[in-house]
Specification:
single chain, 354 residues, alpha+beta, conserved putative lor/sdh protein from methanococcus maripaludis s2 fold, OB fold (Dihydrolipoamide Acetyltransferase, E2P), 4 domains, nine-stranded antiparallel sheet, 6 helices
Length: 354
């Protein structure tokens, strides 16, 4: 009797359970939460050849004295870094200061005389219009006024010349760079044209690369390159110059790749990588933030059209200057990847737990 009761009750229990909560299969068919995705499409990029290079300064110059005077201040020594516009040499300027004071006094006197001459000329013109003075008197006042104007112009030129001579007693750095040599000491008297300091610019650098003979053809055809600094920063070259002749000893072509102007926090002698364009190729790229690293496995969360989420292992390449990660294998064009791996991972765990 109990056996028949169990057989009748079992279908009722199964029916009640199916009505009370969804099965695991039903849960798996639920749509995944809305995720921000990126559609993978082939991108045409430059095919590059990377070679080692060494940075060197484009501008290296020696600053010379423009006055004959004693050195009163010499704030920088060899290997010091100097910002553009900083004072690197200051000469004794007592003589130039005296000439400046004289020129300014002369200008002040000339302006006072001009004011007096202008007032006399205006009064004379008014009297002439009222026919109270003769034409000869007005002509004399006009000549005096014009002479006063000329004296002011000459005095202003004298002040400018004195100012320029005074400024020559202060030598400023023409660009940001490093002091390589110092040719004078504090307290010495420099003559006009005497070398003072030698320095090189950090705002104008270029990479020197020895290009093998087998590679120089394609590189010369495209003439494009980018310099990869030690911190990973990539800078597009502003100029690429390949020597027309190879070195007799190494049979390589010396190539100079100019960096964009500016201080990039690198110094001459630094080793860099130079990526030369040799053609074009198709690549699959995804935002770098979409790539996840699980121990030694690199992966992406792929979102399928039926809302399924899959953590797929891929083989990733280098990081592009635009912040994209090259995917070498494991992903097909047209697939969509989750932009937020954390949100995708949570959604995947929730689906697996259902």
């Amino acid at each position: 009797m109990n056996r028949w009761i169990a057989l009748i009750a079992f279908p009722l229990l199964v029916s009640a359970c199916s009505e009370g909560e969804p099965s695991r299969a039903d849960s798996a068919d639920r749509p995944a939460p809305e995720l921000d995705t990126y559609s993978v499409v082939p991108t045409t990029v430059a095919e590059e050849t990377r070679l080692d290079g060494v940075l060197e300064a484009v501008h290296r110059s020696t600053v010379s004295s423009e006055v004959s005077a004693r050195v009163m201040e010499l704030p920088f020594d060899v290997d010091d870094y100097v910002e553009k516009g900083e004072v690197i040499v200051r000469f004794r300027d007592a003589e130039q200061q005296a000439r400046m004071a004289t020129a300014q006094a002369t200008l002040q006197e000339a302006r006072a005389q001009l004011t007096e001459a202008r007032q006399a000329y205006e009064r004379g013109r008014e009297l002439f219009e009222r026919e109270l003075i003769a034409r000869a008197e007005l002509d004399r006042l006009t000549a005096t006024f014009e002479s006063a104007q000329a004296r002011v112009s000459a005095a202003e030129a004298g002040v400018r010349a004195a100012q320029e001579n005074l400024e020559r007693t202060v030598v400023r750095a023409p660009y940001s760079g490093i002091v390589e040599e110092r040719h004078i000491e504090l307290g010495e008297t420099a003559g006009a044209g005497q070398p003072l300091l030698t320095g090189l610019s950090l705002e104008h650098l270029r990479a020197v690369v020895e290009v093998p003979q087998s590679l120089v053809g394609p590189l010369r055809e495209h003439g494009e390159a980018r310099v990869i600094l030690p911190d990973g920063t990539s800078l597009a070259a502003t100029d690429v110059r390949i020597s027309p002749a190879a070195s007799e000893g190494s049979h390589t072509f010396r190539t100079r790749v100019t960096l964009p102007e500016g201080d990039h926090q690198v110094f001459p002698g630094t080793l860099v990588k130079v990526a030369f364009k040799r053609g074009e190729q198709k690549q699959l790229q995804v935002p770098a933030s979409a790539v996840v690293q699980r121990s030694e496995v690199t992966g992406l969360y792929v979102v399928h059209p039926d809302h399924r989420i899959e953590l797929r292992q891929v083989r990733a390449g280098e990081l592009t200057p635009e912040g994209q990660r090259v995917i070498l294998s494991g992903l097909d064009a047209g697939e969509r990847v989750a932009l937020d791996p954390i949100a995708a991972g949570i959604a995947l765990k929730e689906r697996q737990a259902q």
